[in-house]
Write a structure and sequence with these properties.
This protein is about 45% helix and about 25% strand. By secondary structure, the chain is an alpha+beta fold. Strands 1, 2, 3, 4, 5 and 6 form a six-stranded antiparallel β-sheet that branches.
């Protein structure tokens, strides 16, 4: 039941906004630096929220003792990068742009190694196999995925909002990596 709640939370639109320090009127484009950075911030925030929810479940349901300070440190080391950005469509009635990009999630190599070590101890499949089953590409310590999102400025043009549509799979995978690393003895 708790996994379903996490999935629903992730499937719903993730919103955030930031002000445009460069001009008085924000213009949202799929490939501008501000929009890409905003989407990366949304992903990082959601990674933190879903990971904390999973940790709370593990603590209450299974009595595990996990280090929250280390969890937050590991989350901060994960980097999100959007490349090969495309504008799928732009609404003519609004300023909303629907975008797609190649998402590269960089996870520290020692975190991947720690997670794989813990997964071996608990007799769980290694991360390479888990990535394949999740339709992700894991190359070294980088996860690749095709991300869909949208960006739109507020009516007054002072802020830009971003919504991420399909981030459940890569964020769940990264959370599994971090939780695995936390469980390494």
């Amino acid at each position: 039941m708790q996994k379903l709640a996490l999935g629903i939370m992730l499937c719903s639109s993730l919103l955030t906004a930031c002000s445009n320090p460069f001009s008085s009127a924000a213009k949202a484009e799929c490939n501008d630096e501000q929009s890409r950075q905003l989407v990366a911030e949304v992903l990082a925030k959601n990674l933190n929220q879903t990971g904390l929810a999973q940790i709370k479940t593990l603590i209450t349901d299974q009595g595990m003792d996990l280090d929250l300070v280390r969890f937050k440190a590991l989350v901060q080391q994960v980097k999100f990068e959007l490349t090969d950005v495309r504008t799928n469509r732009a609404e003519t009635a609004t300023t909303k742009k629907f975008c797609q990009a190649s998402l590269k999630v960089s996870i520290p190599a020692n975190t991947i190694n720690d997670a794989n070590s813990a997964r071996a101890i608990y007799q769980e499949m290694d991360l390479q196999k888990l990535a394949i089953l999740s339709d992700l590409e894991l190359t070294g310590s980088n996860v690749s995925y095709e991300l869909e999102y949208s960006v739109q400025p507020t009516d007054d043009g002072q802020k830009i909002y971003a919504e991420v549509q399909n981030a459940v799979v890569p964020l769940e995978f990264v959370n599994q990596v971090i939780l695995g690393a936390l469980q390494k003895p």
